Amino acid sequence: MGNVLHRQTRQYLTSVNTPDYPAGEWLINPTLPDGIPPERWVVDGDIVRGPNPQEAAAFDAADLQAAKQARIAAIDARTSEMVQSGVEVAPGKVVGTTLPATQNLQNLVLGVQLGTLDLPQDISTVDGGSYTITGSGDLVRVAGLLTAHQRAALDAGRALRADVLAATTLDAVAAVEDDR
């Protein structure tokens, strides 16, 4: 029984029957570098070593890019939640801000502008009720609230993304907090 390390994937297996692992693909009972995490091991011929400065820089750059992508994905998910969370148009009346709800309101605005719809008109609230848009001033106000709500979420998300993209270290990426 022995230990093996896959030359390409750096998969390390312990207490295995080493004849089952071809030496061309696996290092048999390799000496591993102390204090170096496995994801940074470099297989150089039949030797496993820590990275040289150029390799370490490449590992650091890849880690930074992965951290940025993960943080941006979290920001995008939160932005989407916020955009679709609804907006209060009257006390206790929260209308949806999902894409279908937004399109419905846009169609209502267009219909009123074209003269194909008359006011008052009901729109659905997120709790299954409705809100009555009583006149053109109320329609403009509701549409403005929805637009402002969505713009605020998108603008805040964009600013956070820019902070992440500008980060030059893992600590700087981690310091970008989405506390919206």
Task: Report on this structure.
- This protein is an alpha+beta fold.
- It contains 4 helices and 9 strands.
- It has a 3-stranded antiparallel sheet, with no helix packed on it.
- A hairpin with a 2-residue loop joins strand 6 (87-90) and strand 7.
- Helix 1 (53-83) runs antiparallel to helix 3 and helix 2 crosses helix 3 (136-166).
- The mean pLDDT is 97.
List keywords for this structure.
180 residues; 4 helices
How is the topology of this model organized?
Layout: E1 2-6, E2 12-16, E3 26-28, E4 42-44, E5 47-49, H1 53-83, E6 87-90, E7 93-95, H2 99-114, E8 121-124, E9 130-133, H3 136-166, H4 170-175
Antiparallel strand pairs: 1-2, 1-3, 4-5, 6-7, 8-9
Helix pairs in contact: 1-3, 2-3
User: What fraction strand?
Assistant: 15-25%
Describe the global form.
elongated
Q: What's the helix count? A: 4
Structural class: alpha+beta
Number of strands: 9
How does the major sheet shape up? 3 strands, antiparallel
Multimer state: single chain
Rg over alpha carbons:
28 Å
Mean pLDDT: 97
Strands ordered across the widest β-sheet: 2-1-3
Distance between the termini: 55 Å
Helix content: 40-55%
Q: Which residues sit in consecutive blocks of at least 5 with pLDDT less than 50?
A: none
Helix and strand string, N-terminal first? EEEEEHEEHEEHH
